[in-house]
């Protein structure tokens, strides 16, 4: 049996695992990605990335390439069967705090290809296809993975293993980590199409709250469009997925000749979360740790946030710049945000997935009345800041998301880099930061802050005097005084 070693073994070569590998390699960490499949899954799955996710891809070095293939829309509407607006989320084509458009419709295989090309250029990082981890053996100073490969079994020794191996996650099962079911499970037929005539397609993302057939219709990247049709209780999913049935489902949209079918698939939308995201030197990320219904478009975004949270922490621990206990902050920081994300997605899903006509009529009446009275919860979607973990609780802005100003085509992160960023009022006027001075001072003024320390994942550690911030940061990382 051939032996190998690395600092971090990532199981799963999807977008979350490869992004994490890049973020680690950028920080000088030796990383190996083991992917059981021979290549990228060729058909779309995720359809949306928000401004925070694109900012993470900016750090990974692929944001411009990904954005070149994105499509955008300014609206996300929830409509009655008669076309009345129940909910409207507007402004999604505008620039978000992350310095990129709020909503970006993607073609996932293209995103994954860009990430793999980037990883291939990173020293100290590699991805191996058709490598399937079959066992993990624990030791005080690391883990040994037994891996079946085309050339025989290999043993890979790693200080840490990250399971980014999807919703079924063999690694999670090997570790004996249970999933908590949050009580949402709905089967849907997903139809992806290639666009031949975009002028004949809806220009907004839509949820059709029709009890006869709850339906989703959304843009995607790279000249594609998606429809999703709820499978009603008692229906035969296979019968619904026939070509004739799909043609009948699409007929009301009048898109014959405007699109051609690329794929059809039955998905069960679920809401679940792993009870533990860390077990010793094994950590879970992405769908291995949580599954989110798609209605808020946050599934892949959440996985990329996991990668951003883990990347700098693992690197600091491995380099001796932080104690291993820093990794214990991962789940407490990410889980509240993730639960809020899932709650929003389930709320949206339960709004859409009503198939009883009387219940749907009551929903429509209540929501239309609320909208007419100005009480409809329209607007941009917001999720909670980090409340516990590596933040200086009690200081203004602690745990919040630090914005990325854009000036003259340049973005703040291109200057501040991927290390912890200490900003004082004097520094805001320095030459590298001069283009962003007004925006940075505005942020400090809004928080009555003398200085701010921003973590590598762009969340605020805390505000206050610079020296006190640095001392508190070193203490939070477990560094010796």
Short description:
This protein is of the alpha+beta class. The chain contains 13 helices and 23 strands.
Give structural attributes:
481 residues, alpha+beta, 23 strands, 30% helix, globular
List the helices and strands and how they pair.
Blueprint: E1 2-11, H1 15-26, E2 31-35, E3 48-50, H2 51-60, H3 63-68, E4 75-80, E5 85-90, E6 103-105, H4 108-120, E7 125-129, E8 132-139, E9 142-149, E10 152-163, H5 170-175, E11 179-195, E12 205-209, E13 215-219, E14 224-230, H6 237-240, H7 243-250, E15 259-274, E16 278-279, E17 282-284, E18 290-291, H8 299-318, H9 330-352, H10 357-372, E19 406-407, E20 410-411, H11 413-416, E21 421-424, H12 437-446, E22 451-454, E23 460-463, H13 466-476
Parallel strand pairs: 1-2, 1-10, 2-7, 4-12, 10-17
Antiparallel strand pairs: 3-6, 4-5, 8-9, 9-10, 11-14, 11-15, 12-13, 13-14, 15-18, 16-17, 19-20, 21-22, 22-23
């Amino acid at each position: 049996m051939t032996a190998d070693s690395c600092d971090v073994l990532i199981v799963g070569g999807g977008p979350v695992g490869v992004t994490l590998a890049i973020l680690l390699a950028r920080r000088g960490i030796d990383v190996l990605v083991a992917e059981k499949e021979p290549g990228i899954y060729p058909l779309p799955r995720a359809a949306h990335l928000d401004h925070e996710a694109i900012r993470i891809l900016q750090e990974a070095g692929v944001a411009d390439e990904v954005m070149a293939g994105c499509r955008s829309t300014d609206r996300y509407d929830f409509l009655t069967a008669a076309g009345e607006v129940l909910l409207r989320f507007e402004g999604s084509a505008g620039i978000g705090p992350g310095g990129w458009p709020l909503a970006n419709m993607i073609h996932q295989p293209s995103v994954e290809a860009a990430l793999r090309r980037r990883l291939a250029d990173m020293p100290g990082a590699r991805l191996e296809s058709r490598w399937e981890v079959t066992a993990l053996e624990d030791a005080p100073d690391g883990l040994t993975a037994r891996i079946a490969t085309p050339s025989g079994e290999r043993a890979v020794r790693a200080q840490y293993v990250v399971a980014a191996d999807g919703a079924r996650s063999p690694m999670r099962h090997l570790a004996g980590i249970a999933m908590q079911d949050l009580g949402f499970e709905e089967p849907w037929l997903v139809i992806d199409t290639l666009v031949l005539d975009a002028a004949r397609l809806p220009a907004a993302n839509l949820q059709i709250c029709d009890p006869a057939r709850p339906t989703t219709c959304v843009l995607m990247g790279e000249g594609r469009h998606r429809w999703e049709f709820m499978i009603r209780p008692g229906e035969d999913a296979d019968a619904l997925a026939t070509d004739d049935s799909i043609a009948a489902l699409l007929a009301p949209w009048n898109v014959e000749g405007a699109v051609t079918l690329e794929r059809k698939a039955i998905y069960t939308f679920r809401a679940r979360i792993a009870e533990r995201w860390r077990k010793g030197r094994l950590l879970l990320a992405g769908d291995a740790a949580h599954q989110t219904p798609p209605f808020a478009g946050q599934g892949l975004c959440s996985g990329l946030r996991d990668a951003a949270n883990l990347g700098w922490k693992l690197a600091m621990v491995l380099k001796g710049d932080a104690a291993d206990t820093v990794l214990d902050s991962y789940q407490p920081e990410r889980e509240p945000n993730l639960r809020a994300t899932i709650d929003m997605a389930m709320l949206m899903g339960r709004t859409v997935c009503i198939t009883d006509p009387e219940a749907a009529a009551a929903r429509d009446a209540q929501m239309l009345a609320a909208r007419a009275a100005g009480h409809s919860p329209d607007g941009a979607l917001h999720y909670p800041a980090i409340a516990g973990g590596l933040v200086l609780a009690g200081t203004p802005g602690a745990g919040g998301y630090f914005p990325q100003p854009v000036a003259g085509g340049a973005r703040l992160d291109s200057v501040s880099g991927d290390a912890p960023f200490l900003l004082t009022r004097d520094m805001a006027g320095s030459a590298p930061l001069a283009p962003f001075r007004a925006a940075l001072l505005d942020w400090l003024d809004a928080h009555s802050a003398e200085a701010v320390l921003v973590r590598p994942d762009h969340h605020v550690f805390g505000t206050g005097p610079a020296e006190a911030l640095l001392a508190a940061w070193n203490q939070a990382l477990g560094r010796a005084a």
